[in-house]
Automatic annotation (TrEMBL):
The gene is ispE. Pfam families: GHMP_kinases_C, GHMP_kinases_N. It comes from Streptomyces bohaiensis. It catalyses: 4-CDP-2-C-methyl-D-erythritol + ATP = 4-CDP-2-C-methyl-D-erythritol 2-phosphate + ADP + H(+). Residues 227-302 form the GHMP kinase C-terminal domain. This is 4-diphosphocytidyl-2-C-methyl-D-erythritol kinase. Its EC number is 2.7.1.148.
Length: 326
């Protein structure tokens, strides 16, 4: 059996470690309903995972070291790493603590996040890190947490975390955490225009409420045309159906995003939208070559910090290395 007598690291042996990856997402439809008594909004949230991934590595630490440090052990590398909190508010760390508590054990691990998903971009980077941390710890500890339990822990961490576990395409109802997986083909080609600085998700929702004022807000429903286009891998159909009810609020808080959207459309993108609560903007492209051209034009335009090309759908969180269990 691996590990020392108490299941801790063996003296003199390399510390046990496990890694998992999780994808970014774009909301191809984000229908926002009325604000609920708990402050959240009812959603019809159609998620598509895209092939940008963060990698989370968890490494066993000695119990004494954990007790001494008195808190989170989080490190982060990659673009924007300095913007990721390294304390107990880090969503990946909260995932470690919640899974440990679920199994009645101590969170005696160090967490390392290798970022590739733009930080604070409306692309669910923090949710991806939490999802990957859940899977990595489950593999490290050999706890074999049933899928439904993992998903309910994920939902406790944040509205978008269950989707990062599941990947592919899914409809999120409730506050986004009640998932139905959707049939999807592809690939769909995407360009993301990244902005400087983030937008606070709660502030964007609050601005959406403010802009709506007293107007009646209908119950959010997924668009049948959009679901058909996703299923059929129909880029033109999807381009015609993309919708984000948070876009006006994101534009109100960050008016310059209108220039970014216009630059991508002028470069030939058949459709553009703010990704989630922003400030990243997403552009659909008919094929890989067009995506490269649109990305180059966006980078040239001076309306964004950088442009990234990717495709969706992408798989959900996956363990990519785990200790060999005896
Ligand atoms: O659930 P999560 O922590 O990701 O949500 C972040 C914030 O976004 C919430 O505190 C809330 O202000 C807002 N939100 C919302 N309605 C949702 C999801 C999120 O108002 N369905």
């Amino acid at each position: 059996t691996p590990g020392g007598p108490a299941g801790g690291p063996e003296v003199g042996a390399a510390p046990r470690t496990a890694s998992a990856t999780a994808p970014a997402k774009v909301n191809v439809q984000l229908a926002v309903g009325p604000v609920r008594p708990d402050g959240y909004h009812d959603l019809a949230n159609v998620f598509l995972a895209v092939e940008l991934h963060d990698r989370v590595t968890v490494t066993e630490t000695a119990a004494e070291a954990a007790a001494d440090s008195g808190g989170a052990r989080v490190s982060c590398t990659g673009p924007g790493a300095d913007l990721v909190p390294a304390d107990a508010t880090n969503l990946a760390w909260r995932a470690v603590e919640l899974l440990a508590a679920h199994h009645g054990r101590r969170p005696d691990v160090a967490v390392h996040i290798d970022k590739d998903i733009p930080v604070a971009g409306g692309m669910a980077g923090g949710s991806a890190d939490a999802a990957a941390a859940l899977l990595a710890c489950d593999a490290l500890w050999g706890t074999a947490t049933p899928r439904d339990e993992l998903l309910s822990i994920a939902a406790e961490l944040g509205s978008d975390v269950p989707f990062s576990v599941v990947g592919g395409a899914a409809l999120g109802r409730g506050r986004g955490e009640v998932l139905t997986e959707l049939p999807v083909s592809g690939p769909f080609h995407w360009v993301f225009a990244l902005a400087d600085g983030g937008l606070s998700t709660p502030k964007v929702y609050a601005e959406c409420d403010r802009l709506r004022g007293d107007a009646a807000v209908p119950a959010p429903e997924p668009s049948p045309e959009l679901l058909t286009a996703l299923r059929d891998g129909d880029t033109t159909g999807l381009a015609g159906a993309l919708a984000n009810d948070l876009q006006d609020a994101a534009l109100s808080l960050r008016p310059s995003l209108a220039d970014t959207l216009a630059a991508g459309l002028a470069a030939g993108a058949p459709a553009a939208l703010v990704s989630g609560s922003g400030p990243s903007c997403a552009f659909l492209a008919p094929d890989a070559a067009s995506a490269d051209r649109i990305a180059a034009a966006l980078a040239e335009s001076g309306t964004c910090r950088a442009a990234r090309v990717t495709t969706g759908p992408a798989p959900g969180a996956r363990v990519v290395s785990a200790p060999v269990r005896g």
